[in-house]
Amino acid sequence: MEKFTQLTGVAAPMPMINIDTDKIFPAVYLKTIKRTGLSKHLFEEVRFRPDGSENPDFVLNQTPYRNAKILVGGDNFGCGSSREHAPWALLDFGIRAVIAPSFADIFYNNCFKNGLLPIALPQAEVDLLMDDARKGANAILTIDLEGGTITRPDGGKIRFEIDPFRKHCLLEGLDDIGLTEQKAAAIKTFEEDARRARPWLFGITARSAS
Amino acid sequence: MAEPRTLFDKIWRSHVVSRQDDGTCLLYIDMHLVHEVTSPQAFEGLRLADRALRRPDATIAVADHNVPTSDRSRGIDDPESRLQVETLERNVREFGVPYFAINDTRQGIVHIIGPEEGLSQPGMTIVCGDSHTATHGAMGALAFGIGTSEVEHVLATQTLIQAPAKNMKVAVNGTLGAGVSPKDVILAIIGKIGTAGGTGHVIEYVGSTFRQMSMEGRMTVCNMTIEGGARAGLVAPDEVTFAYVKGRPYAPKGGAWELALAYWKTLPSDPGAHYDKEAFLDAGAIAPHVTWGTSPQDVLPVTGRVPDPAGVEDPLKRAAMERSLQYMQLAPKTPLVEIPVERVFIGSCTNSRIEDLRAAAAIAKGRRVAEGVRALVVPGSGLVKRQAEEEGLDRIFLEAGFEWREPGCSNCMSMNNDRAEHGERVASTSNRNFEGRQGKNAKTHLMGPAMAAAAAVTGRITDVRELG
Lengths: 210, 468
What we know:
heterodimer; A: 210 residues; B: alpha/beta; 5-stranded parallel β-sheet
């Protein structure tokens, strides 16, 4: 996983609540068996017109937001389906951070597995950053994960919190499975204990159904 | 005396492999359900890192999202859908995952077949790369949806790194009125708490309404927990649960059954257990519900009218409502029962079990699908389909002009060819009314199965209580 330390880039305003994962990445494209190249369908329903041309009203089709690295969104960002294609498509477009008042749980988790930083802030602070994001070429934010700060275009700072373990993994670009494999002995012990305490949970799908 | 614990606390604690200082836990997973859409990249990850599947005996796979619901004996026409299903078939062979093939009678929507086969059991931790995994919480299990990276993590290690959730109690007491279904209960709950009401929490559904509810009904309620923002929702196991599980193909048998049963009886929340958040509803006050907008929280009793954004103060919420109404092509204050529908979908992991089909058939019986309406009935599994046919439900639907299809996810999210065309307005028993989900510009109204059947025969949204 790519490390996340500091990020400076254009922030795009998306002042909508409940931006769901169907909107971020429509279900019809979930037929892919790959995790790359998904940005062509990012926000497809609103980003393109029926003839396939760009919808000029959509923020990510406008300069400088075409090169946005940060999204500022509304409440309950990423609600709906568990599809990890949503963060994959955002990353493929170049988005490395999303700022919103709240996130849906599964989307929030999925972001961390891919080096995409979701930052939850109180509505009043999101409102300030939303205003900043509307400043076109001046809509530049700097996110410092280690220090937990967002630097606004006017130099003002907003603080944010990320739980320490997730922060550590992002800063170091750590692979979760690799980390867990270091606990192989604990998993084995757990399994041995569980097999004694709840033996019916072992071998379930290996049994031919009767 | 030990601190009183909730059902969720008990399941969580008995599955913690290790705990970090910040509370993050490595959680053991008892059952991993796999489908074709969210697994290919996970298996590819295992292959690239030369990792094996840790517990084939706790893993099972099925293809459900891409499968055609018409005659599938000739395979899948759509090349991308076919590739995704073939990729799953290749992966299950390579990694040794038990698999229900698409022509197996036991094939069906992953969340229907888990409980049906006895794979989902009380006290388990159950995951699947699918947000509606919450369904299995009806068994008294901790069941939640995960992303593809987490699918890979479970395949490789049988564990997940998880931050603990908080406890939320949703209490519903009393008896449901005639014509009111479990779907109406969960829609009313979402209308009350909102789509982010359960974020960061696991919801336990308590109260006499759930005690009186069948397992199928509890599954409908738990299924849509995710639409209330919580990853998992559960109902304490009781005699109804035990009677449902007993004798199912993968359920424990003999001495193992007795052992399991004794354990399951220790699971219900202790008196005085702490909940961080609570919501209360009166079952007697719940009417049949229907959504009018593009979020599941945009829901009202069918006796209501389309809301008016002019009355909403919060500018973001007003903008969202205006956008919803524009997308839905609805004028404020229109009575919901005056909204015409062009398509009806009875199916999905929310409402495609035998009871759902019986409820819809009771309305369809002796009536005809209205002129200009296309109505699909898609059973949740091959076994549900077979049982419905044994009960003659297929004849009732076919005689009334409904289409009787093969099992799968179908028009809920339309990855196969069951799709609303030309922005059709759909009365749907599924779980999400998001823009474009059922087809480009499709306008979805969520409701229960009897309500959807009523809409099919009248051609408009209808209060099922008036059809009798």
